[in-house]
Amino acid sequence: xxxxxxxxxxxxxxxxxxxxxxxxxxxxxxxxxxxxxxxxxxxxxxxxxxxxxxxxxxxxxxxxxxxxxxxxxxxxxxxxxxxxxxxxxxxxxxxxxxxxxxxxxxxxxxxxxxxxxxxxxxxxxxxxxxxxxxxxxxxxxxxxxxxxxxxxxxxxxxxxxxxxxxxxxxxxxxxxxxxxxxxxxxxxxxxxxxxxxxxxxxxxxxxxxxxxxxxxxxxxxxxxxxxxxxxxxxxxxxxxxxxxxx
Length: 246
Description:
This protein has helices at 18-21, 31-44, 51-100, 102-126, 148-158, 175-189, 206-213, 222-245. By secondary structure, it is mainly α. Helix 6 (175-189) packs antiparallel against helix 8 (222-245). The longest helix has 50 residues, at 51-100. The protein has eight helices and no strands. The N and C termini lie far apart (69 Å). The mean pLDDT is 81.
């Protein structure tokens, strides 16, 4: 008998976060989604936090807006039908009165074209010039990282307040800035395996370009990226020593 093929796909908790692999910030659960995941874990007798209940909560959060939109659409259709029936009932007596006024309307219809032309001319003079729609600010800096507009958009959508990368000399950094830059360097370029730094056309990926936002030279080889990660570890050690001194 031929040997049975075994699946090589890894479980979700054994795979790297696809957003982090592409240099994008990870998306976090909202407080409501976390509460839902916690209830599901308690009901199933699982310890929390865990990836399974978090994944279910995130998926349910995506479907909720679509259900609400469908419910609103159905309610709008029902309201439109009711309004149409009510309007038709009100118009019935008005039709009889309109039939009596028909001769007067014919005389008014002859004067209507002149009045419409005059009204259009007056409206054209009064109407203000239309403003061109404002262009949406770019959220990604082409040189690497997010723009100020991108950080503001992330804060609105995710509730997290991102700060610009630290580009100062080490001697000018505060301990907190050392911690931030060291943590970034290790998280981005210390991972194993290291995601691609250049694409099929030899251009730097968003992962590589993020170095520019932190005042570092954009790495194109693994050795260059590892050097940035090692510098980050030294920064974290320096931060820890300063913290221990109080």
